[in-house]
Amino acid sequence: MAQYGLDMDIQFLPGVGPKRAELFTKELGISTVGELIRFYPYRYIDRTSFTRIADARPDMAYIQIRARVLRTELFSNSSASAVGIASQEQNKDGKDLKFNTIKRMSVWIEDGSGQMELVFFKGIKWMHEKLTPGSEFIFFGKPSAFNGRVNLVHPEVDPAPSTTTSQPTTTSSQPTTTAIQPTSATAGEKPTAPSTKAVSFTDGCTMTGVYPSTERLKNAGVTAKLMNRIMEAAMDKGMIYIQESMPEYLIRQCGLVPLHFALRNIHFPQSQDALEKARYRLKFEELFYLQLSLLKQKYIRSRNDVGIRMPKVGEAFNKCYSALPFPLTGAQKRVITEIRDDMKSGHQMNRLLQGDVGSGKTMVAVLSALIAVGNGYQACIMAPTEVLAQQHFKNIGKFLAPTGVKAALLTGSTKASERRELHAGLEDGSIGIIVGTHALIEDNVIFRNLGLAIVDEQHRFGVEQRSKLWKKACCGCPPHVLVMTATPIPRTLAMTLYGDLDVSVIDELPPGRKPVQTIHATEGKRAALYRFMKEQIALGRQIFVVYPLINETEKLDYQSLEAGAEDIMNNFPFPEYKTAVVHGKQLNDVKQFNMDAFAAGRADILVATSVIEVGVDVPNASVMVIESAERFGLSQLHQLRGRVGRGSEKSYCVLMTGYKLSKESKHRIELMCATENGFDLAEEDLKMRGPGDLEGTQQSGLPISLNIASLAKDGILLNAARDCADAVLKEDPELSADKNQMLRKELRKDKYEIKDYSRIS
Ligand code: ADP
Ligand code: MG
After folding, report:
1. What is the pLDDT of residues 586-629, one digit of tens each?
2. Which amino acid residue places its CA nearest to atom 1 of ligand 1?
3. Is any ligand 1 atom within 6 A of the Cβ of residue 34?
4. pTM over the 0.90 mark
5. Nearest protein CA to atom 9 of ligand 1, as residue
6. What is the dihedral sign for C-alpha 120, 126, 132, 137?
7. What is the DSSP string of 249-285?
8. Any idea which ligand is nearest the CA of 383?
9. Residue 327 exposed, middle or buried by CB count within 10 Å (0-12, 13-18, 19+)
10. Residue 470 and residue 752: Cα distance in Å, rounded?
11. Is the beta carbon of 510 within 6 A of some atom in ligand 1?
12. What is the pLDDT of residues 683-696, one digit of tens each?
């Protein structure tokens, strides 16, 4: 247990001790002084500005109020919410009171603009002694609303500076400003001022950092104020050991402030300007190293990896292209050019293709596969579910017809005899394109010469599956890899998650798409909804009704689907109406039969769970009803909505929810009704939930955790950091130059050990 240096255990810092140190480790992952110094405030409070009581609102963040104590009221165990059993007048010094029976204390304060209640449930005895009527304090806390009034629960209390004229007027046993003793919980704190050091980190600092904290830390007495003291102590001990972590030339080139300046000012800003510079520097550094580590891998790979050279476009491609029933969109053309350039480069392609639902990724997949075939190689297209694989196979068939290329379908339910035939066809090369599920990458599937692997809906594929795919390499060369995802990953996140992949984006929908009108409704509107559905069916349209299936083993989810399907069938009686039901527990044949019925227009309504429908293409479906919509994430809702609006008719998406929604759910539903742009929604999702929760990123995981930079908010900075990292590597790919030794050393740290998603073998 180190007692000095950056590895010094934080328990030795004044104000911490072994118990709190353990909590710091458990709750925040901080054990050493070095780690603590790299733990930054997430916001700042200007300690020179005060909020008037009359202006306080419950939706404000932390506020600071300078006010005088009017009176305190104590509430006992038995009457916790009833009458005050004592007021300050009756119990002058509180001595007679049995504080162990007191559950709550109300303190009324006044600042000339109004009165406000402070509420305490803990530390009442000490606060009661401290907050004597008439004395003035600075109260700091987060306002909340109670009984229609704004109050502060457990505010921090500081003595008001004595320089003002508004000194406490009442007298006697009242403690003076300096006599206020720390509680046992905060024992060991240094006095606030004056500092005994020649130069203090806090000198001249008017802003106070607010650090991320947890309930348990707060309960252990680690207040915002104490946190600042601890940080000051940590800097006192640790700063001399901190070495600059960016090379001099990059500091100059990128206009950064030195690390010491940045750390001092991130914790104890000397000015708003210094704080901005500090943040910029620290964010930049964080994003720079992240990008540098990712790009370095990419450089190494593109140099070492020989890929299959596919010099021509080929006849099959041209035949398919000239027979297309529609012109490609500009975005599709651009993306195909990018893919084609990769495939002919002689390096292995590792490309992520992003495109909103309905943007026409399948077309791109087909044309890419045909390039491989045209060069004498095979291609495979993998889908996450059986239904999707079948759908792909069917769609692709249309486009392949003019080419004469033989395609096949291989899934878990392919019969053994058929399977043998397929295996033979793959091995002898007579099958050019194979579509399928995970079954494609089983060990017994042998390709003659797999040249391109396309993975659809990437987030359902684990790393393990991809590595299996890798082993299908032929003639010593790995196949080109194209990963397609409809989860609109914000650019900033994609750059980070897939920093080692190339990213193509289809940012344009095929022409003629009608906007989808999105409506929020609750149970009371169900009758109206059913009437509306009947109108639509009368017009010849089809309708999806989707139930959440969050957990496949969750009985309740199936029950709600079954109950819902029954309700639909009662309200839409056969034979006038035809309803198909599809869910994951059905046999594949049954599932397929029902899906086909809907796709072919034999059923008016498809009642389904959310897990199986991804990618289903039924242009005649114009209404998407999503039940319990509050249980879905934004991107999932968006995916579902993308199932309609594909035909020429006006389409609708109805979000059914319960009456009571959490603030977040409400926000999600409102956003869905307000915008159809998947990237905007994903951006919002990222802001609301943070990158860790974003659908599709959980499995791949963010390569390293970010301390201060935000992928959602620091997009511009991320670009700058990436450009800088790219320039460094272009000049010195090995980082062997003297000036880059610092970079090399930093990248050796564990946190940059990045899993390579595309080629783990
Ligand atoms: P996704 O990107 O969601 O996989 P699809 O590839 O399923 O989208 O395409 C959605 C629909 O749009 C399909 O019916 C497809 O045939 C059609 N489509 C694709 N490209 C075009 C285009 N350039 N013009 C018109 N329709 C297109
Ligand atoms: Mg698709």
Report:
1. 887 888 888 889 989 999 999 988 655 555 778 899 999 999 99
2. 358
3. no
4. no
5. 360
6. negative
7. HHHHHTTPPPHHHHHHHHHS-SSHHHHHHHHHHHHHH
8. 2
9. exposed
10. 24
11. yes
12. 777 766 655 444 43
